[in-house]
Amino acid sequence: MGEHILELSGIYKTFDGMDVLNGIDLYIEKNEFLTLLGPSGCGKTTLLRIIGGFLTPTEGDIFYKGKRINDVPPHKRNINTVFQRYALFPKMTVGENIAFGPNIKKWDKKKIDRDVDEMLELVSLRGFRDRDVTTLSGGQQQRVAVARALINKPDILLLDEPLGALDLKLRKEMQIELKRIQQESGITFAYVTHDQEEALTMSDTIVVMNGGRIQQIGTPQDIYNEPKNAFVADFIGDSNILCATMVRDLEVSFLGRSFECIDRGFGENTPVDVVLRPEDVVLNPVCEGSPCGEVVSSIFKGVHYEMRIDVEGETIIAQSTINCPPGSRVSISVLPENIQVMHKSEMSPDRRIKACDKVNLEA
Amino acid sequence: MKRNACLIPLYVWTAVFVLFPLAIVVYFAFTRDTGNGVALSFESFTRLSDPMYLGVILKSFKIAIISTLICIFVGYPVAYILARSKSKMKLVIVILMLLPMWMNFLLRTYSWLSILENTGLVNTLLAAVGLPKIRFLYNEGAVILGTVYNYLPFMIMPIYITLLKLDESHLEAAADLGANPVQAFLRVTLPFSVPGILSGVSMVFVPSVTTFVISQLMGGGKVPLIGDVIEQQYRVVNDWHFGSALSVVIMVIVLVFMYFINRGDVESNNGNGGRLLR
Ligand SMILES: Nc1ncnc2c1ncn2[C@@H]1O[C@H](COP(=O)(O)OP(=O)(O)OP(=O)(O)O)[C@@H](O)[C@H]1O
Ligand SMILES: [Mg+2]
Question: How far apart are the first and last CA of chain A?
Fold first, then answer.
């Protein structure tokens, strides 16, 4: 499709003998909004700093428009960063911070003046131009950091959790705002977050990372509907991840029953993982032939109720607009297309899956 | 009520050790011995208009300013390298730099004499390789050298401490925004360290204006500074009135100096960055 503006090939990074990145292969397309998503400590910031030029990879190459740039220092890369901890210059006003890049590049004074105002408008900080940055709130500082990077019109903008300090409402507004800026300016965004919802709403491409490895790359739809392994499924939203056996094509068994599904090609009697999104679990009055369980808890979540149901020792999360009070018995069913069958991942993200691997081995 | 009570020792201290001696100096400055008692007089101040004294005052300030500037230009790079170094030897080097500060002031200065005098270390070495001896001592240069040597650590330390507080991420941000290392230094590091420089200036400049030990030892009495004149008035000529008047004048000039330095400090410093003196 689009031009690959940046390519990472076989990137490894080791800090004092600790592997932080373990072979990252990734390309970023021109004009796309790419999100690095993963839990804290998985190496997102490290990867971003390698792209920005603040770290050199222990192994591997970075290509910018086809040229290897491993040894190009940050000030010579046409890439700007919104740092995780803002790094605003404390002795300068908001306006001076934003004008720092243009001043270095010796833009025309009038243009700088105009662009600074434009940027302040963009991040809703009109009237803050002469304020001392140290007197700003966390959220305001974050927006200054965005403006300071954006004014340079870089080819790639790196954003390291730029909305982390904002309250929910402002966060949502800024998400829409950033997305709009990205689409209008045509600047390629590489965005780091550990908030899956943010990633799903803003991105063209999501890169799910864990333990210094890429788990899955895909569109938000791909990642949400067809997680490649249990880690991705678990990380993207609340979901039920169950141990299952692929009996044959189009038939999978879990919770002690057999279910019709739409997957093929897993072989016969193969251990697999199955993902059920809570909103896809349908609750019915108790009937023969479908798995039954007892409602353990029910919480009102605004639009729907979220219920936890104990079925054969497994806890299933279900969402429904109709409340089933704790203690009541229900049976559950799932439409074939809502059953997501995955290969067992080599990496088990949590204990639940390990425990269920054991069940599989014993079976 | 209670807070005020806590301040009482401070008031007592200030009264006994600051105001009282100051009052005595001022008293002597504005009086004169009439043979049978003392009388109010401005005679000491009129004597100050003697070009000889003005010359000494000017020279004292000239030497102090030159010494302070040298301290900045030598001390800043040292402080910078120390603060940015990640070497494990850093602490050792800092302590080595401080070591002379803990040694007696006179002793330190005498050691320079034995290095530089006509029969000293350097000239002995020069003679050994057949070069002519150089007269290092007993001139202005020697006094400046002695001042710089004695007060350099007081310049390095505040700058070093300020630079330690410089957040690495600000330099990264500057680089990110296109600044090369020199531009990043000029626009981020240097403005950040101004409070440290100003602290250093106050710690070096004031004592160098009034020093008399250094000018006597290194200058051999050939470069009399205002400190020497004051000392003479007290100990040799025994004219406490004139000595006090000189002190008051110097004090006023230094206060005006410090006022401007501190104002620069407040302007460049919005509550962060370090200073040792207040
Ligand atoms: N300079 C460094 N020296 C040693 N270890 C480091 C260094 N920088 C990062 N690490 C380690 O590398 C790992 C990944 O760090 P990184 O900052 O990339 O995580 P992250 O994914 O950005 O996490 P978060 O979401 O919390 O910001 C962490 O275990 C961290 O302790
Ligand atoms: Mg991070």
Answer: 46
